[in-house]
Design brief:
By secondary structure, the chain is of the alpha+beta class. The protein has helices spanning about 20-35, 50-55, and strands spanning about 40-45, 65, 70-75. A hairpin with a 6-residue loop joins strand 2 (about 65) and strand 3.
Length: about 80
């Protein structure tokens, strides 16, 4: 098992329609390219499920790697599954 000295968490929040999803996707893709040896998770709690629209891929309630950046996994939490 590998232990890390530090983990990073970046959160994007704000009013609706200000570009949180776009910025989060862009940042995650940049980070995955910049640090290909690291595992990156882009996680959304937004019920609008717009990650898939921005990334042009299906995003599910389980973390799945992107085809073009295998060290970047994407997941959209479905609140219905966590009652």
């Amino acid at each position: 098992m590998k232990y890390y000295d530090s983990l990073n968490l970046v959160m994007f929040s704000g009013k609706g329609g200000v570009g949180k999803t776009t910025l989060a996707c862009s940042f995650a893709r940049y980070w995955a390219r910049e640090f290909p040896q690291e595992k990156i998770l882009l996680l959304s709690t937004d019920p609008a499920h717009s990650l898939g629209d921005v990334l042009l891929t299906e995003v599910k309630d389980i973390a799945l790697p992107l085809t073009d950046l295998p060290n970047l996994s994407v997941q959209a939490l479905d609140a219905e599954n966590y009652y």
